[in-house]
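=== RUN LOG ===
request id: a7f3
mode: sequence -> structure
chains: 1
length: 142
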Amino acid sequence: AFSVVSKLLSQRKLDLLDELVSAEVLQVLKEKISLLPDNHRDALAADIDAIMYTTEGDVRIYYDDDGRKFVSILMRFWYLNGANLPDEVPGETKVFQIVFGDESTKEKRHLLTANYEFQREFTEGAKPDWTITWIEHPRLLE
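=== RESULT ===
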């Protein structure tokens, strides 16, 4: 899901995210994506083969006021991306770079991070669909 959504964000195909991302998050994304420079937008895309590491950041089970049961999982992703980003990005935070090949054919890639929160209702009879309720690409999508 992370790879699919990040690619759709990068391609500005936000209309295809209706069933995957909550309406509130989608509205915020529409505003942010329209303001991004092309190189930052390109850096959002995470090819599934370029995902280097994933870990859960937080797992919560909670009930709403009507007694419905929900599970929320915050996932953190580290992925390689070849977008043309400066060595230093806004906020003076260093972006890691990995160089493949020798000096004459080197290919520079950035090791980027993203945080996505997935939520699903587990109340009996509820549809078994996961929804993304938070998306963060630090220093790219702010």
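=== NOTES ===
The chain is about 20% helix and 40% strand.
Helices lie at 2-10, 23-35, 38-43.
=== END ===
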